[in-house]
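Regression test case RT-17, inverse folding.

Input:
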């Protein structure tokens, strides 16, 4: 169950990271509200997962999911760069996330 918490927390991190862009520095009330709710829910779920998992692993996976997901949505929604180097490093990030999970012992 702890891994489920961390994965969902990571997905919520993707949402609030993109929400930061749409809230325009918390000047747009509706996107700002959803962003703040996403931050709170993401942190709460990360804390639940970290009760069981090593904090270094849980945090790294959470950040990795958030970073990879935000990068992908940045390309899809915001027209950000898809250079080969960027895609290669994004792939390395995904491999690192999987490696942390596989070697955590939980």
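Golden output:
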């Amino acid at each position: 169950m702890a891994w489920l918490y961390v994965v969902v927390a990571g997905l919520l991190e993707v949402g609030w990271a993109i929400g930061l862009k749409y809230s325009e520095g918390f000047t747009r009330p509706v996107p700002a509200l959803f962003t703040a709710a996403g931050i709170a829910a993401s942190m709460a779920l990360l804390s639940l997962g970290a009760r069981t998992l090593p904090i270094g692993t849980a945090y790294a996976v959470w950040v990795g999911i958030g970073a990879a997901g935000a990068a992908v949505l940045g390309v899809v929604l915001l027209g950000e760069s898809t250079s080969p180097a960027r895609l290669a490093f994004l792939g390395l990030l995904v491999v690192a996330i999987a490696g942390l999970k596989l070697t955590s012992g939980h």
